[in-house]
Specification:
Elements lengths: L13 H26 L6 H25 L6 H19 L2 H19 L1
Length: 117
């Protein structure tokens, strides 16, 4: 084989490494595709419909709790948290888009923490 060692440590076989990586790749792809394949059978499910309604609020709640629990020690502390929360709430009340509020609110908070304070 041309790439017999390929920079691998002594005693590590390139063929075995490629096989292991191929199996890992296939398992990862299968695990990521499985929910979408299963969703086809649950389209009419009341649980899936409820999750579609509840998940955006749940994600926003988790982000707020995470920020409040760990953000006080971050640069800007309470100021960055307060401004980020106010921006996210105002944006959500204005646009009524959970995805936009989560994305831009998180981005605004990250900008505050990393570049302003």
């Amino acid at each position: 084989m041309i790439l017999a060692s390929a920079g691998l440590p002594e005693g590590v076989d390139l063929g075995a490494t490629i096989w292991i990586l191929a199996v890992i790749f296939l398992v990862t792809v299968a695990l990521r595709a499985l929910p979408f394949a299963a969703l086809r059978f649950m389209r009419e499910s009341n649980l899936v419909a409820w999750l579609g309604l509840a998940m955006p609020a749940g994600v926003m709640t988790i982000l707020v709790v995470y920020a409040l629990a760990g953000g006080m020690g971050a640069p800007g502390g309470a100021w960055a948290l307060g401004l980020g929360l106010a921006f996210t709430v105002a944006l959500h009340l204005w646009k009524r888009s959970a995805s936009l509020s989560i994305l831009l609110g998180t981005l605004f908070y990250l900008v505050l923490v990393n570049w302003v304070f």
